[in-house]
Design a protein that fits this description.
Strand order of the largest sheet: 1-2-3-4-5-9
Shape: globular
Oligomer: single chain
Strand content: 5-15%
Structural class: alpha/beta
Length: 453
């Protein structure tokens, strides 16, 4: 999850080859500079693209997916890769500490890598190690990394996950405010939904996933290990991993939304309990069987949050807006499966539901959370504000009609009310319709060195 588009090794490209082939992508890059060249010379995107260098990506590059500490020599190589990516245009360092292989990184390792990004003016963005039962311990780790690495930091998709933690959002925000009062530059972002989404194999204990897909599948095929896995999935006391299966209430709270396997597509939009009943299986066995069949690539939506915590975070001035989702479309390869509705409607949902209908936010404040606040946080100084001299990335919408249409049951629908979208001064949406213009470009971070290739 923490792997970025680059840098990648030959092994990593080979492991991702089925996905690249499925989407018709020729992976002819290894460094970030080569990816940006590919983007601008071959892809010609309609939107601008910026990226971070993933702590999990450089760990995978150097160590693989094994659960062990980096040697001093390996850490030096990882720091070298971060420096290279920063000089080639990365915005900063990212981590996804709930997932492999990021989970295996120590706090000291993250401090060392974040320190490199800081030297180039970068930011540290993180999916916390825990959003559930170790929430505040995880938050303390974010503060420590920011302090020791002397780097500004942002928490991705801030949440208080699982029923036992509902209602803790005010305290979570208060602790961020306290950290800022001590001199740390901490902010957060969120998406406006009460369900999250990740890969289906995240329902499994961490030790099952350690070492990569083939080792995971071998463990899942072992009857004795399957019984151990099923017991651990129901264990409320686990702290070694984020037990999203138990936290979502079991099979009823785990919705299958996307698969690469055509044989599994008929189950998309159904939860694990429904699928288990249909197949006459324990829903936990369904999870394991589907992970085997789809080689760990299936995605699910999990019910783990409460609406009041979402609203509390959204009202806070330090919290901006994200989608936390890959691109989707109503046609072509990106329309083959379902997804979380946040891929389709996160921003219009805020403007329609939380601004117009609930009046939770003023329109101006919602727009700030979508534009100038995130742009300034990642160091994009020429975007995010409408004024002379800034790049003309402009969205024209009707505040009376804008709304999201994507639902958890039927997500694959574009939002309505967006009249025009301009990217670098060219219309990519006009009168509500997508145009043929492709003015997007690579956006490079503050450490960019133009001569680096």
């Amino acid at each position: 999850m923490g792997t970025s588009i680059a840098p990648v090794s030959e092994r990593m490209v080979k492991e991702s080859a089925p996905m690249f082939k499925h989407f018709g992508v020729i992976a002819d890059w290894r460094t970030l500079a080569e990816y940006f060249k590919h983007l601008e010379e071959r892809t010609h995107p309609a939107i601008n693209i910026a990226t971070f260098v993933g702590a999990g990506g450089v760990r995978n590059y150097v160590i693989g997916e094994d659960d062990r500490r980096a040697t001093p020599q390996e850490l030096d190589k990882m720091k070298e890769l971060v420096a290279q990516a920063m000089e080639q245009g990365a915005l900063g360092l990212s981590s996804s500490l709930q997932y492999m292989p990021d989970r295996f990184a120590s706090t000291d390792e993250l401090i060392a890598l974040a320190g490199v990004a800081a030297r180039y003016g970068g930011i540290y963005l993180t999916h916390q190690r825990s959003e559930g039962n170790q929430l505040f311990e995880s938050l303390a780790e974010v503060f420590m990394i920011a302090e020791k690495a002397r780097i500004r930091a942002e928490i991705w998709h801030l949440k208080t996950a699982y029923k036992a933690n509902w209602g803790k959002m005010p305290e979570l925000l208060a602790r961020i405010e306290d950290a800022r009062a001590r001199g740390l530059d901490i902010t957060a972002n969120q998406y406006p939904y009460v369900r999250a989404s990740n890969n289906l194999d995240a329902c499994l204990p961490l030790w099952v996933r350690e070492g990569g897909v083939e080792k995971m599948i071998a463990r899942l095929k072992d009857p004795a290990q399957r019984e151990r896995i099923k017991m651990e999935m129901e264990d409320p006391t686990v702290t070694a991993w984020e037990n999203q299966w138990y936290g979502a209430g079991g099979g009823d709270g785990i919705l299958l939304v996307a698969t690469f396997s055509p044989d599994l597509r008929k189950y998309e939009g159904k939860n694990m309990a429904e699928i288990g009943k249909r197949l006459g299986k324990d829903p936990r066995d369904v999870v394991m069987d589907f992970v085997i069949a789809d080689k760990g690539r299936s995605a699910c939506v999990i019910s783990i949050m409460t609406g009041e915590d979402v609203r509390t975070a959204l009202r806070h001035p330090l919290v901006s807006v994200c989608t936390d989702s890959e691109a989707k479309a109503e046609d072509g390869p990106l329309a083959e499966s379902k997804s979380h509705p946040r891929a389709w409607g996160a921003f219009p949902r805020i403007l329609g539901k939380y601004v117009r209908e609930e009046k939770l936010l003023r329109l101006e404040e919602a727009i700030r959370k979508m534009t100038s606040l995130p742009a300034s946080r990642v160091g994009l100084q020429d975007r995010g504000i409408l004024r002379p001299g800034m790049m003309a990335d402009v969205v024209v919408f009707d505040p009376a009609t804008i709304r999201d249409r994507a639902t958890f049951e039927d997500p694959n629908h574009y939002s309505v009310g967006m009249k025009y979208v301009f990217v670098n001064g060219q219309a990519v949406v006009a009168d509500g319709e997508i145009t043929s213009n492709r003015p997007g470009r690579a956006l490079r971070g503050p450490g960019y060195r133009g001569h680096i290739q």
